[in-house]
Amino acid sequence: MSYYSKNNPEQPFQTKIVTNIRAINPKQANPIDICTMYSNTLTKAVNRRKSAEKDILDGSYKKWSGNKRVADITRALDNGWEVKVSTYCEMSE
Questions:
Q1: Which end of the chain is more exposed for a tag (fewer CB within 10 A), N or C?
Q2: Residue 83, domain extent
């Protein structure tokens, strides 16, 4: 299904399927963004989310190549913060 801009009915919106990892620090109002990953299909995004959730639960995330991501997740877990993985669709003109 395509969605079209009201300003330009011949131009469809650009859609991105996003998997996002955030830490919830109870002392802050806004969650802390750890990383954002983009996928071409919903199936890939859902699989990526499941894999990230599993890796965070069993500690396999420590093998990820992104040192900042690993450090941010470790800090969040060490402080007892909740780490959430979500999948959603972004649309832009």
A1: N
A2: 14-92
